[in-house]
Amino acid sequence: MNKYSLKFQDKKIFSLIEDEKVRQRDGLEMIPSENYTSAAVRECMGSILTNKYSEGYPKKRYYGGNEVIDEVEILAQERAKKLFGVPYVNVQPYSGSPANLAVYLATCNPGDTVMGLNLPDGGHLTHGWKVSATGTFYKGVMYHVDENGRVDIDEVWRLAKEHKPKLIWTGATAYVYQYDFEKFVEIAQSVGAYFAADIAHVAGLIVAGVHTSPFKYAHIVTTTTHKTLRGPRGGMIMVTNQGLKKDPELGDKIDRAIFPGLQGGPHDHQTAAIAVTLKEASTPSFRTYGSQIVKNAKILAETLKKRGISLIGGGTENHLLLLNLVPIFGPGGGVIVSDALGVAHITVNKNTIPKDPSSPFYPSGVRLGTPALTTRGMKEKEMKIIGNLIADCIDAVKVYRVPANKEERTEFLKKMRKEIALNKILLLVRSKVKKLTRGFIIP
Ligand SMILES: *Cc1c(COP(=O)(O)O)cnc(C)c1O
Question: Are residues 174 and 215 in the same domain?
């Protein structure tokens, strides 16, 4: 054994990583914002590029020794521009949230009004929600979805006319429809606002041509690189031709917002991994991957519906499903079902549903998706099996109800968790899950 290896230097962390490897291998990863990266991406992330400081941009650095790093970053930029067809990109954001904050710095003054989708309706914190910095330093006006979970575009029109925002966001974390980018740009233009499309969840689907594209409409497009795009944790900000037409300085403003506005030295190992991701995403096999994600999500939705489970929107147009658990559990069923699926090693997350009769901590829905399972090579056949396993788990716990009285809830959860950990059906599903995952290796 190499005495500098992790195994030798820190047994504790080494063994925790081994434990996580087993968890990722033996369970079904169905959180729609997660994925499995390629070995090539992980090689970059573990590389010596992490040793370098490179504040600034290619050929304009504040530190010496950046000849090689410049090439890495330029390559990442060129690949992003080509893949998405944009004239400008910044690949330095540490993740999606700082990428979005940089857009505010570049386009707004503190106190300016911005518009985004309400968080409990599926929106993201960084679109002006009150507990986020974006809702503290800017005035967030939130639009909503209707009872089918679709953005209420009439309300967006009305709010835009009333509040005259400087910046309007589309994008969501729990939305089963494709976005209508064309309508949004019309609204933004009517009040002179910047229109930013946050494609964090669906970037990979857009690349694969199975989701509407914002690049003809939005001024700015932000994304994470680690969701359907299947790269390292990271973010990118792109400016489109329309964006440069609206404001020729917009690219420079974004650059200054990231550095020195918001960040210090870029994570060069991450930049290299993003470059590799973009190369992988420009292959025909990635297009096949993206369209399989959506096919899988549709079959999963059909299977669940056949088993009597209600879905927001009655299905999905992308990679994710939102289960409406009210008909089975009344308010708050998301906690029960996400815990039950957890026992069976099916990882999902509890989520609010439109007009949720309960609260964000005890929401009435569950959100799940197919990007990670599709990376493992699972197809329609496996989705049918998995849909039925999920339905079995829901059946196994349908006697539980979250107490209406808030004081009884902690005790209820404690008792329920103890019981379901020993539930025979859930444990049987767990063993079936383990067997199923065996044929599907992780990259
Ligand atoms: C995930 C996500 C983000 C933020 O990404 P982080 O990398 O977690 O900071 C931003 N916007 C949307 C719509 C997202 O889904």
Answer: yes
